[in-house]
Design brief:
540 residues, alpha/beta, eight-stranded mixed β-sheet, eight-stranded parallel barrel, 16 strands, 44% helix, binds phosphoenolpyruvate, binds magnesium ion, cytoplasm
Length: 540
């Protein structure tokens, strides 16, 4: 029995056989050729085939891992077509008289060195991509099949030194118990994919890559961060029992995928998913989300150097709306500010960012910025059941002003004959005590409320949600918070406005009965929590 420790990329416990994956290095001998035209033809055909493959991978990855993750294949397409890279290969063929495959391998080496020598995370990732695209081209020149999925007859614990993005996304998901990589980080594509598929994953092992473990029985305990090879009888027995219990529970819960969460007293509460972008969709759909209750669109603005264009956003919202096939998709306009900083917007430094320039407060100042997002959302409303949700609302005038801007967009789109849903509903988040207290007035302006308990807690208790030093003052079940929620729900009911919760308290087991009692219409939670929550409602 041998235990290898690593970093947990996604929690889980599995027992199975290890399948070692490694890319056989293709030996390309230095070969001089006379017929350069024929080598150029081989190269052109391989480029075309590679681009076709990448197009297919892009479509597959969009479904498996979401639009954002799939973008890597668009990048690969651009890299294959890159003029400098292509010129280098063609020069090797035409001037050096190298075979097409050898010419690509030389270009791979050269560009890999250039990118890898740059002391920058972005470029070292591009170095990996150069290898990825070059290997694809070489295989296509030589007519070698991409055999990555071959040999996966049973579900396995996939073990690799590292996985290239295309390899990760090319793996047949039905054959996977878990993914373990000797290298890699929790931010790697592998980790992200494992999370989006919700399978156990360990990365960054404390032991070097070892091909000899292929076929061995192993336990991946991705609760404890351990890969245990050749476990002894006692451990095997324990783990089998644990897995059996987990499996039974999972199977029981899976039955609830299409069930309606109706409590014992007959109250029906819809269970929706919160998403940050389209890559969270597969798990939401797998777990039977009845809709998207919170699409945190600010994530489309984070982690980049410039604003996402209206077109980029439109595509993302349209994609989600279409994937949800007519189910509600509540798109929250961006909640930038406080902890969600966007450097390129050059917003001023503030003494109290959480009480400062944030969300709707930015939107109502920079109306061009706001309208560009609203236009993308409203245009996408033609393709599904999209609703608009405004964050950090404190007062009626803010809603009125936002609605005026929405009207302006309606007129602009009509003038240009661009289709959209003119009946698109507008709702608000209830995230401040002020909003909860005047919820009777706010209800007259909107179609729905969604309580953001994360912020409602911080603002009600004056306890910064980022500050762990004051954790013991953060009583998430504080009577004041429950009272504000009750009041909001009552005002919503009184005015015929739908009421939901999309903050973390939505999935809090101690509050399920509270939501039933106060007749909440829906609870929107992280995709992984949907089934547990349905189960609790049904049994309450
Ligand atoms: C909330 O405040 O509860 C909420 C859902 O919004 P966020 O966590 O994105 O601030
Ligand atoms: Mg909030």
């Amino acid at each position: 029995m041998k235990t290898i420790k690593g970093t947990i990329a996604n929690k889980g416990l599995v027992l199975g056989k290890i399948k070692v994956f490694y890319d056989e290095k293709i030996n390309i001998s230095k070969e001089k050729i006379n017929d350069t035209a024929s080598e150029i033809n081989k190269l052109d055909a391989a480029v075309k085939k590679s681009i076709d493959e990448l197009d297919k991978l892009f479509e597959k990855a969009k479904v498996d891992a979401g639009e954002e993750e799939a973008q890597i294949f668009e990048v690969h397409k651009m890299m294959i077509d890159d003029i400098e890279y292509q010129d280098e290969i063609r020069r090797n063929i035409n001037e050096e008289k190298d075979s097409a495959a050898y010419a690509v391998s030389l270009a791979e080496e050269k560009f890999y060195e250039i990118f890898n020598s740059m002391d920058d995370e972005y470029f070292s990732q591009r170095a990996k991509d150069i290898k990825d695209i070059s290997q694809r081209l070489i295989k296509n020149i030589l007519g070698i099949k991409n055999s990555f999925n071959e040999g996966l007859e049973e579900k396995v614990i996939l073990y690799a030194e590292d996985l290239l993005p295309s390899q990760t996304l090319n793996i047949d998901k039905d054959k996977l118990l878990a993914i373990v990589t000797v290298k890699g980080s929790t931010q790697s594509h592998t980790a992200i994919l494992a999370k989006s598929m919700n399978i156990a994953s360990l990365v960054n092992l404390d032991s070097a890559f070892d091909k000899s473990i292929d076929g061995k029985t192993a336990i991946l305990d991705a609760y404890e961060g351990a890969l245990i090879i050749d476990p002894d009888e006692k451990l095997l027995k324990d783990v089998k029992e644990r897995i059996e219990k987990e499996e039974k529970r999972k199977l029981e819960l899976e039955k609830l995928k299409t069930a309606k969460a109706i409590s014992k007293d007959g109250t029906y509460i819809s269970v929706y998913a919160n998403i940050g972008n389209s890559k969270d969709l597969p798990l939401a759909l797998k777990n039977g989300a009845e809709g998207i209750g919170l699409f945190r669109t600010e994530f489309l603005y984070l982690g980049r150097d410039s604003l996402p264009t209206e077109e980029e956003q439109f595509k993302e919202y349209k994609y989600v709306a279409e994937a949800m096939e007519g189910k509600e998709v509540i798109v929250r306009t961006f909640d930038i500010g406080a902890d969600k900083k966007v450097d390129y917007l050059n917003l001023p430094e503030e003494e109290n960012p959480a009480l400062g320039y944030r969300a709707i407060r930015i939107c109502l100042d920079d109306t061009d910025l706001f309208k560009s997002q609203l236009r993308a959302i409203i245009r996408a409303s033609h393709y599904g059941n999209i609703k608009i949700m405004l964050p950090m609302i404190n007062d009626v005038w803010e809603v009125k002003k936002a609605k005026e801007l929405i009207k302006e967009i309606f007129n602009e789109l009509k003038e240009k004959n661009i289709p959209f849903n003119e009946d698109i509903e507008v709702g608000i988040m209830i995230e401040t005590p002020a909003a909860a207290i005047i919820s009777d007035d706010l209800a007259k302006e909107v179609s729905f409320f969604s309580i953001g308990t994360n912020d409602l807690t911080q603002y009600t208790l004056a306890v910064d949600r980022q500050n762990e030093k004051i954790a013991r003052h953060r009583d998430i079940h504080h009577k004041a918070i429950l009272k504000l929620m009750e009041m909001t729900a009552a005002n919503a009911k009184k005015n015929g406005v739908k009421i939901s919760v999309c903050g973390e308290l939505g999935s809090d087991p101690d509050l399920t009965e509270f939501y039933i009692k106060n007749k909440f219409d829906k609870l929107s939670v992280n995709p992984g929590q949907i089934l547990e929550l349905k189960d609790r409602i049904i049994n309450s």
